[in-house]
Amino acid sequence: MLSLGARSATKAQVLQGVGFNLTRAPESAIHRGFQHLVRSFGVSSKDLDLKMGSILFIKKELQLQTSFLDKVKRLYDTEVSTDFSNAPAAQKRINSYVEKETKGKVVNLIQGLEPLTAMVLVNHNFFKAKWEKPFNPAYTSKSFPFLGKRSVRVPMMHQVEQFAFGLDPELNCSVLQMDFSGDAVAFFVLPGQGRMKEPEQALSAGTLRKWSCSLRTRWVEVFIPKISISASYDLETVLPKMGIRDAFDKKADFSGITERDFLQVSKATHRAVLDVSEEGTQAAAATAAKFIVRSKDGPSYPTICFNRSFLLLIINKATETMLFLGKVGNPTMF
């Protein structure tokens, strides 16, 4: 969305920095693709709630180009608010909006809004779903060791079920696929001890396709910690490392947003919150029957225990789009 109002090198850096080759993908095609994704995500059912949206907060005095406003509304269904009279009031209003849209999960996103701030562009997404095969809370261990630089005790969920599961010998990791009810799936990736770099660096659409094709559905004993984590990133330190530099200094060219005023990006913040529990999101009934107790003479199942750092990916199946990507080093870091 920022690229819609950027010009010259600023525009090129934004689009190339997030991975687009402008000789292969025209800018208009990039925006049409995102328009399609945003509209595809606007689905809700009793099992899956997936929402994405944007809002533009601007000062009344800022005279925006009508073409920019038209494009952000038409392509991204962006709301526009001009109630930006003073910085503290604007900060409160923006944070209230984000908290409401994320059902209370993301709070106080904007902190210390500067008096010179003329425009704030907020993007939010919200994902909430039930497991297709939920865990039974009765089988959750209240205190299980999770190993790391500083070992912690975590609630550990447990079940024996049929899941798509396999080993990737090339990347030295185990991969478990768990489906949500609805059109989403989670991949849990457990690297060999001390081998996180290999799967982390190999993550790509091709790697995901390889896992999807090679995993085999089988009975497997699964231990997954209940997760409640939150992470914040100051993107003004991250994006320049990706090549998006001019947007943050005096070289910035956002004349596609306004010609009368000079704009540059002063702050870019990203916050993600993830909760993983037995039922996924809501209470699930009759899960006890899905737990199989093993005896000494019973069949043996492969066991996967996520009791050390692992990767977690949540994918929207209909669009093959990654909704969430995280590395869990401490499941209790909220």
Automatic annotation (TrEMBL):
It comes from the Eukaryota. Its main location: secreted. Keywords: Glycoprotein, Secreted, Signal. GO terms for cellular component: extracellular space. InterPro entries: Serpin_CS, Serpin_dom, Serpin_fam, Serpin_sf, Serpin_sf_1, Serpin_sf_2. It is found in: Secreted. PROSITE patterns: SERPIN. Residues 1-331 form the Serpin domain. One of its GO terms (molecular function) is serine-type endopeptidase inhibitor activity. Coiled coil: none annotated. It holds the Pfam family Serpin. Belongs to the serpin family. This is Serpin family A member 9. It comes from Catagonus wagneri (Chacoan peccary). The gene is SERPINA9.
